[in-house]
User: Fold this.
Amino acid sequence: MEREQALYLLQKYNKEPFHILHALTVEGVMRWFAGEMGEDVDFWGLCGLLHDVDFEQYPAEHCKKAPELLAEISASPEMVHAICSHGYGLCSDVEPEHIMEKILFAVDELTGLIGAAARMRPSKSVMDMEVSSLKKKFKDKKFAAGCSRDVIQTGAERLGWTLEELMEKTILAMRSCEQSVAEEQTKLCG
Assistant:
């Protein structure tokens, strides 16, 4: 599958700039993790890009409607499984099994928390964010309340990582793609 097909499908079912930004961010983060682990950067990135393909138009069917939408671009069974597994325990009974699926599960909520924390910084960037300041935001349940701390913690545990390790790696991953994500979002959303 080509990225253009995936981007077309994402934009067909997602119009909100925030959802596009989140998809591009998770794509970039997944590409970074794949590169660090010597895995298939393109496949991991496409799973990140499309992980919420059904969320905007079908929130009550999130991770359940995805297989039908992904069939439009002939997504592989592996991709469908990965995308559906990121909602495990929340809206899906498909369990993350592969390391990529576990990372997608863990970073989906965490990228949202990091993004919200970055917008509060004078720089509006992750480039100068430290784990210590993110941990303070993590502990404040009122901050970015929609980002599940339980999912983030469970994600770290499923990976066998400490919460700090997951936070540090995800900050680094977001730094690697922050500029390109912003540029592409501007191009796509005007």
